[in-house]
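Re: the 332-residue chain
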Amino acid sequence: MGVDGLPVIDVGPLVGGGAGRERVAGEIEAACRDSGFFYVTGHGVPEELAARLDAACRRFFELPLAEKLEISMARGGRAWRGFFPVGAELTSGRPDLKEGVYFGAELPADDPRVVAGVPLHGANLFPAGVPELREAVLAWMAALSGVAQAVLGGVALSLGLEEDYFSSGCTADPTVLFRVFHYPPAPPVAPGGGVAGWGVGEHTDYGLLTLLAQDSHGGLQVATPRGWVDAPPLPGAFVCNIGDMLDRLTGGWYRSTPHRVLNVSGRERLSFPFFFDPGWEAEVPPLPSRGAAVGGRPRWDGRDLRAFDGTYGEYLLGKVSKVFPQLGGEVL
């Protein structure tokens, strides 16, 4: 069963280590070859944790702007953490109709990477007015890291690799990024016709794998081979999609797929994208499997990801400086 052609995959065998992993890997392969998007169930993340995270985030976004700005990204420095207001984040050079908070792996001040000033490494910023947000966010990132490793195990099997190919290699020390986005209600059309304002414009994700939790209001749209389709929320399920680095690793056998957000529900919308990516110092060479040898359909933007040579951290830095140009000098 699926939603608008996006399959629903029970990853319980991958999470629990039971029988059926090869079957799940086959389902993942079919999804990655088609649209690069699928729903994940059987992940084992407690509903109670999701509810706590949602409630704490709603409390934060209800705060006056001045209080939210107390943890603004400008205060996060090179760690690239904190709050940004509506319109401050750009996608493909255009302001998004959303506000949000950036989080990442929580590192102490004496961590060698923090001491060395490695960009995107450091401590998170949490609001004093919503003390429960810290615990909920850190617990959520820990839980989804386990799910992401398990799903990548299925991806590895789907490519004819050992199940631990990623977890013992480029995601042994992964780059973990977590966002919470708040979309205000938006009119469906602008004066004279057309879209009034995209919550997030058309884009692909940078890394390996994204796990998205979303509230009940929807708005996510995916560019499938059959055209744009909605990816509405399913209770208890994550939307999973692959990113540019898996596209690169497989030589286009698995394509990262464009997607966008338009909130026409007439209500506020929350989404919780979790990005699970190669380690900062990891290089991303072609996979030793058939995936690297067989080409896929052309990318939506005409780019050749194989042209990039370097570490994932270098690739990511080139991307994030375009999202918040006013902060780019902090990390480059």
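The first strand starts at residue 2 and ends at 3.
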